[in-house]
Each structure stands twice: as structure tokens, then as C-alpha cells.
């Protein structure tokens, strides 16, 4: 028996990088997965890869910052697969600057994608969680075991330790820690665990070695990303494990908080960073 058989997982930003690797791992454990991404094509690619492995998934393309997104996302899990047991807030990107150069627009964009979107998803999920907890409490009188449900929020070592010239991103990722701990308290009585994983250097398009002008497009706007080879090599040298994490390493840490093995762990932040922040 796979460990997530019968569960429905919803993952934002699962068209690429750590989110895509996580969607594949959740599906391999038997979960049906709703794969969100801003960009439809990579979301469809993740769904196709899951289907090729014999799993169940559907794509839900859209911007997590759109008002109404959260309600539609939860409804896609509930209507498409009959539930919403595991929710991972992973979508995001970097728009870096120091304090002097950060515009209001830039600050708001970072809070919106990393923090406000997670809050709205939690608010939209809440009625379903309350309703399920009530129904299962009634069943429990007849001896049924209450279902554990899980939220995992993707933070960053920029949130847990701060980062040079990432003020908006860092503040939003730190805000996710408060959101995680508050929801863990509020939803504990419903049997929902809420934890966060703070990634260190994970090798995705955000941290690629810069060759010429390296940028990504998010919602029609281009953002510079990437690290010079020198900075990347310095980061490796400062990391006890002497390497960056793969998307699979990052996804593995998140999977821990999605499995029944973590049913008694809530309100925790783990750093998946090769030991750099210990
Ligand atoms: N790569 C790292 O070193 C690192 C370190 C710390 C934290 N993180 C965090 O990990 C998460 C995943 O990042 P990644 O490194 O896999 O990057 P990635 O760019 O490979 O994947 C992120 C995905 O999120 C999607 N996305 C971005 N904005 C979105 C929006 N508004 N709505 C829906 N989808 C959106 C992108 O299209 C992309 O497919 C992010 O929250 C990021 O901040 C990454």
C-alpha cells in the first residue's frame, strides 16, 4: 500500500523546479495531484510525467495572486478528485533589491506571491477543513480514525536568516513562518498539521549560473535571476554538504511533512540547506 493512497494533494508552482519534483513524489506515493503553475505548458508537462508513471493528476493553470484563485484551486481538488488533504504553498520567484532600490510595486509583488497567496489559500481551505472535521468527529463515535491533513509552506533561508539585497523576498518568506505557526495552533484541533520547509541553495532556474543576461519571465515581466559561478562556488564552500540541493532533495524534505510518519509534528520549520544555516 502506498503511503498517500486515497489522498488529494494540491501544489502551487508545480510546473518546474522543486514543485514539479514534489508533485511527482506525491503521485508516486499514491496521491492524486492538482498541479498549479502560472504557466500552463510546464503544468501540463508535470501532469503528463505523473500520468506516464501511472499516477493521477490534473493541471490547474493560474496566478496564485489573482483574487478568487484560492477558492477555484480548492474547488478543483474537491470537485476533480473528491478532496483537498495536502496543500503545499510553493509558487514563487525572486525580484531582488536592497532597501534603497526596492519600489512599492516590487515589495508588494513579493508579499503577494509568497505570503498573501498562502493566506488566501488557507482562508479558502478553512470551510472545507471545518466541515470534514465535523463529519469525521461524528464518524469517530462509531470508531473511525480521524484523517490527518497537511499544509506545507515553502520558506527560505532568506526568511530564517535574512539575505543580502533580498529585503522584500526575505520579509515575505519570514512572514510565512508566522502564518505557519498560527495556522498550526488554529487547525491543530481539526487534525491538520502545518509546517514549513526553508530551502537553502536549490539548483533550479532561479539559481542557475549566469551566462550573459539571465532572466525569467513571470506574468509578462522579466526578472534577473541566477548566481555568478564565483558566488555559487562560495556558497558550496560554506555548505557542510559542499553542494547545492537538487529539486528532488528539496521535494524530499517537503514530502516528509506530507506523509503519515509526520502526523504528530506541527508548527515546525526545517531548513533543507545542506547544513548551511545550522
Ligand atoms: N531555488 C532556490 O534556491 C530556493 C531557495 C529558497 C526558497 N525557494 C523557494 O522555492 C519555491 C520554488 O522555487 P524553485 O526554485 O523551484 O523555482 P522555479 O522557478 O523552478 O519554480 C517555481 C514555479 O512557480 C511558478 N510561479 C511563479 N509565480 C507564480 C504565480 N504567481 N502563480 C503560480 N505559479 C507561479 C513558476 O512559473 C515556476 O514554475 C519558491 O517559493 C522559491 O521562493 C527556492
Automatic annotation (TrEMBL):
Annotated Pfam families: adh_short_C2
Gene3D superfamilies referenced in this protein's UniProt entry, alphabetically: NAD(P)-binding Rossmann-like Domain
A biological process from GO: fatty acid biosynthetic process
Keyword set, alphabetical order: Oxidoreductase
InterPro entries per UniProt: NAD(P)-bd_dom_sf, Sc_DH/Rdtase_CS, SDR_fam
MF terms (GO), sorted A to Z: oxidoreductase activity, acting on the CH-OH group of donors, NAD or NADP as acceptor; quinone binding
SUPFAM superfamilies according to UniProt: NAD(P)-binding Rossmann-fold domains (SSF51735)
PANTHER family in UniProt: 3-OXOACYL-[ACYL-CARRIER-PROTEIN] REDUCTASE (PTHR42760:SF133), SHORT-CHAIN DEHYDROGENASES/REDUCTASES FAMILY MEMBER (PTHR42760)
Protein family according to the UniProt entry: Belongs to the short-chain dehydrogenases/reductases (SDR) family.
Protein name: 3-oxoacyl-[acyl-carrier protein] reductase
